[in-house]
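so my prof wants the structure for this chain in the tokens format not the other one, which i didnt know existed until like an hour ago. anyway here's the sequence
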Amino acid sequence: MRVYISADYAEKSGDREVVDLLNTWGSDNRHKVDFVDTAKVNSGSVAKDPDCRICDLKYEFNRQINASSYVIVVIGDKTAQRTAGNGCKRGHKNQFECYCTPYKQNTNGLKPCKVGSTVSAGDNVGSINSYSYIRHEFEQAKKRGKKIIVLYNSLNNQPSWLPSYMNGYEDDAHPFWTTNILGEKVGDYQYIKQALGYE
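here's what i got, hopefully its the right format
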């Protein structure tokens, strides 16, 4: 089974701990789950291109999501405020008016937009948009009818953390963390198994 994970990867205030534990579970030989997370895509062949842009990453996210059975969206207390990926203005401006910074190339400054023409994205969310990366991934999963699992990086339900574009998912979202018999915080492995159809 292939499962795509969308999450906030900010080093000091993101939700990487959830993703790391999911990936650990995916490699425990108990279930054949291939977790693909945003960080892996960002460090892959597309991002290694020195001219990789926002639109290139979003196109790759689409490809990875389309190849997945489930999409897990991790929601933390900062998710709704994240704007990374929303810098593309090409959707409502001419090419000559648009500049962007190649991915992880901030020291090289802005470059002219390389998208000569925009066309309908068809069955996908177009990679030319002003969505944040997290919103783009969510919208793509929704458009393609993927099974979406929403997890709070919390011990409790946190509906106020949901971004406005996820209105209606309050009843479906679930805390990722629980406590064991010793009162220690642990990932809710049983819930994840059930959500992925193993039980």
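also thought this was worth mentioning. The beta strands are 2-6, 34-37, 70-75, 99-100, 111-112, 147-152, 174-175, 177-179, 185-187.
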